[in-house]
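Worked Example 4.2. Consider the chain below.
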Amino acid sequence: MHLLQRNSRQVISVLLGSIIVFASPAVAGPAADPARHWTADNGNGTYSNPLFYEEFEDPDIIRVGDTYYLAGTTMHMNPAVQLMQSKDLVNWELVGYCMDRLDLGPEFRMEGGRNIYGQGIWAPCIRYHNGMFYVFCNVNGVGLQVFRSRSIHGPWERNQLPGRHDLSVLFDDDGKIYIISGNRRPYPIEELTPDLRGFVPGVRYMLDAQLGEGHHLYKINGKYYDVSAIPGASTDQLVARADSIQGPWTVERMVQGESLGVPSGTPIRARPNDPGLTLHQGGIVDTPSGQWWSIIMQDHGSAGRMVALVPITWHEGFPLIGLPGNLRKAPNTWVKPDTGHVQDPRPAFVHDDDFDSGRLNIEWQWNHVPDDTKWSLTERPGMLRLHSLPADSFFTARNSLCQRPPGPESIMTVELDTSGMQPGDVAGLGLLSWPYAWIGVVKGEQGTVLQMVDSTGSGRPTRTGQVPAPTMPPVVAASNPPTHLWLRVHCNFDTDEAVFSWSTDGNEFVTVGKPFTMVYQLITFQGVRPALFHYNTTGKPGGYADFDNYKVVEPRARGIERHIPMGRTIALTSGADGSYLAADTQTDTVVNILADPNRPPDRARFYVIDLGLGRVALRAANGKVISVADPNRVVLKDLGGARPDEAESFQWVNLMRGDMMLMSLVNHRYLTTRPNQPGPVTVTATGPRPDRKGGAEFKWRVVE
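Applying the procedure from the previous section yields the following structure tokens:
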């Protein structure tokens, strides 16, 4: 049964040194409306990254028949190791977890003043062999967890092996089972016993080449491949190939500086020549039609690490991300994979929970192993009741119930009833990170106070229980507020700012304190986590707080980036210098020009022709269309009524924050201007610059 199902009993059977963990099927959530919740599917046969606009770490992927399965890191959170499935590689469903309770010692339960923030279970390897699903996942300081199940829904049997860092497993076609691990050369390749309960003595090969970590080991067409990532956030991914598991190995760069336009700093303040946060660490998979794809991780600032879906092109025997003519780079928008399955857009994650079903939304996770006697969905039906447990701070409070916040912007609101709180109790809505921040009610002997706390500048906590107190005084919003109130936090991941507010009626909200600056850090090793919490500062349990109607609004789930102005006349301006894309009718070439930013001239007006699959042709005012004669010469061409061909076709590539690009189908590179140098444009850019000032990033507006 699922950890998050109230009034359940944890069923653990010890059999031959194994632990059987029973997991419930996925909990049905609210209606998944693609207009209200992020989905990568654009609804026109294309998709745009990120695959999920929220954190999903260390992805590994497999295909079994016509279904794809994805496993991701959960670190200290419970349940542990999230599992997803899809038929088309774009629309995914969270189906469950491998382990209901990551209960491997007192620190996993936040006992004795210790915690496992930033540790826990990570970098899973998912495999399928002879009718069995396997997930291999290391827990630092504990050991390698081996999960197995006949169904992706469980139940999962678990056994433990000695620890191996960022491992990957290969079931070879001769019956042998290999495991590679490590984060520095040479990388050991060992053999597992057939029952996966030990290592074969004396078998230890070495992959002696400069690679990285986050291994993904494969055998494809008789050759061995290991895909790994150079450690860091602005790094690349490498791939090694060998004819034998014993080597020798040849290494190629699989990803080179591909950021998809994501900056390393706060997006709206991206600095010039920002290297960006690059794609690194991910697995590869094929489709029945013979295509190859990668789901690969990318840091995204305070929102955490997300994943992108990118095409793979085989080049000289190596799988490289990208398309012919532009290898080691990847389009942010592209045609959906040919999986043989057609599906309408469906969000993977819908975060709302009214607590009426008797079970928590499957997306909830506890910050550590919870005390199941201290929370309930049945004591007051239709509400989540959290009984307070002793803690010094929000950061050390047990039974904090968390979710991942969707980007690029999300507004989390919850109702709170404080009538059951006792002196010393603190309850509310917080952002679990370091520094942390929260808004909530503090119950004292003489009354209650509604306040907002920001721990910025408070030093670093330790895993042995020392947590610095906030240096900034709390901001008091109200003394003796009503016992029934609404709390809200509005997160904007383009500005990395969060604004807390509260309401007495759920309609009119009052802001409290200054915006909280969200950061990504290695203390929790995650992006910020909205959390419902309740703890007591007197050193003993207190009362209870009731939470209801947790709502998450995503204002930009379908922003301007998703709209292509088909059949409209538009003007395109460069993000680098504000110059217009324009037609030079005397030379029949395409240029960029400086002109009145409020009054685009006629030659800067283009009619957008819909070519299907998010592809467009642009027709100038004289009736000619933009055509790529060669990468360095973009001309105007009279088609004489014929349909635009490949040379006239551009993939409309959307970036976030209103930017877009035009990718030529001739060479899969982008139409680009030369910043601050009006003149002929080319189709030579390999991708967007994180500061959006490379000359290939445009903004558009209708000018009819």
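Confidence is low (pLDDT under 50) at residues 1-29. The chain is about 0% helix and 45% strand. Compare this with Example 4.1 before moving on.
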